[in-house]
């Protein structure tokens, strides 16, 4: 009998943020496939095989899922956050596009999760309350010039922005360039949020102005939210909230 493939989002880190739908899928899986730290979040049990693999092996991982499912396994591929946001769901469909008819007969379901950007926004208030866009700053799968172009166009449209994969040890300079672009094109007091390891014990949220932001405020566990012109702060005795109002003056 043919098996199934479910691509499931584990949310940003907290167990409370895993949806019941994803939990049920994991509980009835025969095999879990994913990047090593995500598979490590799954409790071992009898009848469940765990298949952790390295970060750069998305297409191999997807092909492995098809192979297991074609042999009757109930495979769950786990991603952090939402599986459709810079994660495994698209990689599975990239493999399916050119796959054999046998693989095309396998049922595939994508189960959403809470993506880092939304968990980070909620932790600060509502910085994405008006129009926003979401850009992956990694140039592993696209040229850096395209990233610069998209950030420039988003600035022109005064979108709030969320940046995933902002800065890594192997890509230290890209974020410096993007920050320089923001500093040249926004007012100095426009807000920027560095939200690291959101919803985990290591969570750290730094809210500052674009003028004062430094490249080393971001790393690979950080999602960066850049405010639009209207994004602002409310200080209460206990908290500082950041929000972007829902309306914009007519142009
Ligand atoms: C390969 S992307 C995966 C995104 C994931 N699918 C999601 O929806 O959140 C990895 C990037 O997501 C962001 N990220 C994932 N989990 C995070 C968390 N708990 N806190 C802050 N950023 C996070 C970081 O920008 C990280 O570099």
Provide key terms for this protein.
251 residues, alpha/beta, Cobalt-precorrin-4 Transmethylase, domain 1, Methyltransferase, Cobalt-precorrin-4 Transmethylase, Domain 2, five-stranded parallel beta sheet, 30% helix, binds S-adenosylmethionine
Fold topology:
Elements: E1 4-9, H1 20-27, E2 31-35, H2 36-39, E3 49-53, H3 58-70, E4 74-79, H4 88-97, H5 101-104, E5 107-111, H6 116-124, E6 125-126, E7 132-136, H7 144-156, E8 160-164, H8 172-185, E9 191-196, E10 204-209, E11 222-226, E12 232-235, E13 240-243
Parallel strand pairs: 1-4, 1-5, 2-3, 2-4, 6-13, 7-8
Antiparallel strand pairs: 8-11, 9-10, 9-11, 12-13
Bound molecules: S-adenosylmethionine.
> For this structure, what is the CATH class of the largest domain?
Alpha Beta
Number of helices: 8
CATH architecture of the largest domain: 2-Layer Sandwich
Q: How is the largest sheet built, in terms of strand order?
A: 3-2-4-1-5
Helix content: 25-40%
What summary fits the major beta sheet? 5 strands, parallel
| CATH fold field value of the largest domain | Methyltransferase, Cobalt-precorrin-4 Transmethylase, Domain 2
Q: Find the CATH superfamily of the largest domain.
A: Tetrapyrrole methylase, C-terminal domain
Ligands and ions found: S-adenosylmethionine
Write down the Rg.
20 Å
Oligomer: single chain
């Amino acid at each position: 009998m043919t098996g199934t493939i479910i691509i499931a989002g584990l949310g940003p880190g907290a167990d409370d943020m895993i949806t019941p739908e994803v939990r049920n899928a994991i509980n009835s899986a025969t095999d879990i496939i994913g990047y090593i730290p995500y598979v490590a979040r799954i409790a071992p049990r009898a009848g469940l095989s765990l298949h952790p693999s390295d970060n750069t092996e998305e297409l191999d991982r997807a092909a492995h899922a098809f192979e297991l499912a074609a042999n009757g396994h109930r495979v769950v591929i786990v991603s952090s956050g939402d599986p459709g946001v810079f994660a495994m769901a698209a990689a599975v469909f990239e493999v399916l596009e050119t796959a054999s008819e046998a693989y095309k007969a396998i049922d595939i379901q994508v189960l959403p999760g809470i993506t880092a950007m939304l968990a980070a926004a909620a932790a600060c208030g509502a910085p994405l309350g008006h129009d926003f866009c979401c850009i992956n700053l990694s140039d592993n799968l696209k040229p850096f010039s395209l990233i610069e172009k998209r950030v420039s166009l988003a600035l022109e449209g005064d979108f709030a922005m969320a940046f995933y994969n902002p800065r890594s040890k192997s890509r230290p300079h890209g974020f410096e360039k993007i920050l320089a672009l923001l500093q040249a094109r926004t007012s100095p007091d426009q807000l920027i949020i560095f939200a690291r390891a959101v919803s985990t014990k290591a969570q750290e949220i730094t809210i500052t102005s674009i003028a004062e932001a430094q490249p080393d405020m971001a790393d690979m566990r950080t999602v960066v939210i850049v405010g639009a012109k209207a994004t602002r702060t409310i200080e209460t005795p206990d908290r500082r909230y950041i929000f972007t109002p829902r309306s914009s003056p007519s142009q």
